Amino acid sequence: MRKRFGIDIDGTVTCPTSLVPYLNSAFNLNLTLADITQYDLSPFVNVSSEELAKWFIETEPEIYANSPLAQGAKEVLSQWEQKHELFFISARRSNLLKITKDWFINNKLKFDHIDLIGSHDKISAAKNYQVDVFFEDKHDNAVMIHEECKIPVILFNTPYNQDPIPDGVIRVNHWNEAYEWVENWLKR
């Protein structure tokens, strides 16, 4: 049965470490992903929130163009692209659409649709596209999408999303676990 998958990009399809080398270089740090225990990066850098935001806006095109794929993402998404609709829904700003599409093309990933909503509030996009399941790395997004849309949400395990999760949000460590969960869910 063909399903529509809502899929976040950063930290989900891209490796959650993508940002770390850029942070380390720009702010003279020596962080690893394990050090980043919350989604807000302000406490980890020695600049104001405003300066961090300015740096990010200036640097994000380079980060997004060069982000490595998450382990197993290409293999799993390539299997699903023939059977399901893949709708990538990201908090990236819409002016980054060309960079984002080029990244997908360069990584030989197919997509049915890419929506860069410019906000972490993905609920309306998930409802609008009538997705059947969502894939996310941001804890509060995962919980809110599940609760508002009444769909399962696969939460990719990272040090920054360790708060408790309700039933219906499924924590996985990698794409192969996500694949196994989805394949079992489809059989029900």
Explain the overall architecture.
By secondary structure, the chain is of the alpha/beta class. The protein folds into two domains: 4-15 and 68-187, HAD superfamily/HAD-like (Rossmann fold); 20-66, no CATH class. The chain is 39% helix and 14% strand. The chain is built from seven helices and six strands, in the order E-H-H-H-E-H-E-H-E-H-E-E-H. The chain has helices spanning 20-27, 49-66, 73-80, 97-106, 123-128, 139-149, 175-187, and strands spanning 4-7, 85-90, 113-116, 133-136, 153-156, 169-172. A six-stranded parallel sheet has the order 3-2-1-4-5-6, sandwiched between helices. It is globular and about 50 Å long. The model has no long low-confidence stretch (mean pLDDT 97).
Give the CATH H-level superfamily of the largest domain: HAD superfamily/HAD-like
- Determine the fraction of residues in helical runs and give it as a percent range: 25-40%
CATH class of the largest domain: Alpha Beta
| Major pleated sheet | 6 strands, parallel
Gap between N and C termini: 11 Å
List the helices and strands and how they pair.
Blueprint lengths: L3 E4 L12 H8 L21 H18 L6 H8 L4 E6 L6 H10 L6 E4 L6 H6 L4 E4 L2 H11 L3 E4 L12 E4 L2 H13 L1
Parallel strand pairs: 1-2, 1-4, 2-3, 4-5, 5-6
Helix pairs in contact: 2-4
